[in-house]
Specification:
alpha+beta, Immunoglobulin-like, nine-stranded parallel beta sheet, seven-stranded antiparallel beta sheet, 43 strands, binds alpha-D-glucopyranose, Alpha-glucosidase, hydrolase activity, hydrolyzing O-glycosyl compounds, hydrolase, carbohydrate binding
Amino acid sequence: MAVYKISDDISLYRYGKPYDTEAVVVRELEKAGDEPLKYLQEIEGKGVNLTYTMDRDDIIFGLGENMGGINKRGREYISFCTDDYEHTEGKRSLYGAHTFFIVDGRDTFGVFIDYPGKFKIDAGFTHRDILEIEIPTGDVDIYIIEGEDKNQIVKNFRELVGRSYIPPKWGFGYQQCRWSYLNAGEVEQVVDAMRERGIPCDTVYLDIDYMVDFKDFTVDEKKFPKFPQFVERMRERGIRLIPIIDAGVKIEAGYDVYDEGEEKGYFCTTNEGDTFVGAVWPGRCAFPDFLNPDTRRWWGNLYTRLTDVGIEGFWNDMNEPALFYTPDHLEEVIEEVKSSQGENLDIYSFFKFKDRVVELSNREEDYKKFWHRDKDGRRINHHEVHNLYGYNMTRAASEGFARNRSEERTLLFSRASSIGAHRYGGIWTGDNKSWWSHILLNIQQMPGLSMCGFLYSGGDTGGFGDHADAELVTRWTQFSIFTPLLRNHAGGTRPQEPYSFDDDSAEYMKGAIELRYAMIPYLYSEFMKAVREDRGYMMPLAFEYDDSRSRGVEDQLLCGESLMLTPVYTQNARGRYIYLPEDMLCWRGRDPRNREIHRLKKGEHYLNIAIDEVPFFIRRDRMMVMGKPLNYVEEEVIRELNVVVNLESKAVYDFYDDDGKTTNEADYSLMRFTVRRKGEEVTAKVEQVAGETQVVVVNFEIYAGEDQVVKRKVYL
Ligand code: GLC
């Protein structure tokens, strides 16, 4: 084991010869002496095995989108990007390999395991007090990250792995998806319905059926005639269309993407050097070798086929990569099925038979059948670097945008990912279900994602699989209005758009979505500060309040520096229990105009929350900055801000804004709002700290003391 000192707070312990995942952006390494491994203990065994003995109340935070609560303790996690559409409680892997966590308690430290293959983190599953990391091979980079508190540890980690992706500001608008809106007419119906009802909306998605036979970078002219004009017409209505791009490329002679990939050797190969074949939506596909920089360059340029006709955003999918089957294994199974004909299948043989068929997809054996050629020209088996596939697909797209539309931001998010991918795009949390438990799952996934740098993220609001009812979609929307990616998505279920149920529910969702648009000034400011300062966007309470009650909270979140969220996630609820770690201001309402604000004392409460109400809390000496609802983000420039302040003595807020479109980072506006109380006197000040603003007036609504409400208007 070799030890490197990255900074005072970060040490790298290198075992064997790890694969260079490029997750870490610090490339110069300074060798340290023979320091022993901090916190963790090595134990004998195959590969690298590290353990840590936890105190009874130690908490494990992080691990990205993994299931298992905000505190990840008590479970086992397998780091292996997995296409799994059943996010049931026992699942040990989802689509992301997010291998950074913080142990918090007797010792507080961060661990980042930089390893691209499959490995296990036993977070107190086998033995409640033992954390164990098991790397099957002897080659891994273990980073131990310290800091004065948890927020600092997150910041140190994020500086190590590089700055998070920035979407266009319209990516903070409401987004509507379905598998699938089958043609231009169906897309237009969605837009008509949203606009007629005045429900704000910025994007509509094109799922796989927009393509010709599921062939990437094609558009079916029969379903979408005159596509460029259609894109343009939608843009005029404030709608961007976001097509899906899948990892598998249909094998079909004459399909130019396949032909070129084949000719230039851009696809993954078998051990014998032939193009590897696996099946996804179009049937047999080839898989671009995203580890090869030439492939990435080629692939990244293919997106221009769509950006050239006005497309400004994409979602990359099936990039674990998902494999429905490989033809050779399918043949084996078919033979077995045939040979079972007429057999008496008993308890042993029947289940074996059934499993053979059920387990055709995403088999580890199939992941061992293909090879990459990486940046160093090295041939490497896919299974060893499995978790890098989605990451490098996102990277290919992002590098393409940096070359081909360098001035403008492009919306981009992926399903599979690993640490490093956060620099290139966001992620969504994949195929959840319209289950109440999955609202809670979504709430609990967000802080882990924030810690790992996946700031632009969110779940399929309303649930992807299974049929949703109006109440569930309403409650879920009321939570998702705080997540950077706010997208309603369902596949093959009853319609789930906000207007698909009854008129009342449509009004409730409209109110929540209007509130979202009104909150964008704050949400965007907090998002951008989280990117620029390597901070979290949605975080556990314990990162700001260290009392033992706050440390155990699993269903409330901090959102940016000012807000605490208490979403409703149970059916037929009329409210919920909440915990306030300090006196806070409760904002509740059905939309930005119809709301009430009152003070609530530190402690436990039961809060009535009617079905049309969204509550959130403003922390002490913090403020919430609001604009107004719009039909779509770019409809108007916000010139008037309304700032609600929870004032005890002095509150300062740095309000970040920029044009939200260009990649030019030099042009931004930073305003500082300072609100103070001295005795009975309350003052509000606005300073332009950097850049210029188009805001002309800031209205302060200041809640000072028990029941004093002071209004101040500041003209600029
Ligand atoms: C996958 C995606 C889902 C998409 C579907 C069809 O299941 O996760 O979001 O709608 O494929 O493309």
